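Input/output pair, single chain:
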Amino acid sequence: MTHYDTLGLTAAATADDVRDAYKRLALVLHPDRPGGDARAFLELKRAYDCLVDATLRKRYDAALASRASRPLADVVDVEEMDVRTVSFDSPETASRVAGGAWDVYSRACRCGDAYEIPVGELQSLRRTHDECVLECGGCSLRIGVRLSPIGADPAHASASVAVG
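Output:
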């Protein structure tokens, strides 16, 4: 489901259309309203934040076009990925990263290498994207990773680690 689907719009929608759709749906979905749905509201807010900002929308549209033009090896939920700590042997790299290591979401690739993304970077993407694409570090394969909005999955809230 795209941000356009969430707002009930097409890619041709104007910024005013995005605002109008958001306001209309927010009145129904806001968790403080009777029958409101916190998770659906978070998805709505994320879609609005992305599509109302011209720069973010341009990136999002490019990502949608790229996703449509190049097949993925797999599509997984972020919850299916492991969180592991990556450390650095190089003193110059270690000095730029707090403690010489950081946490990454990781998933093994069939080539033996892995798809990885720093936890902080993924948490940032969750604010504006419903999916991201990761490339393997050892081959040309790519996977799609479905992202749940921040706050929607309390089981993974502890994985919020700032990347220095």
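The chain has two domains: 3-69, 74-159. The CA atoms of residues 7 and 20 lie 9 Å apart.
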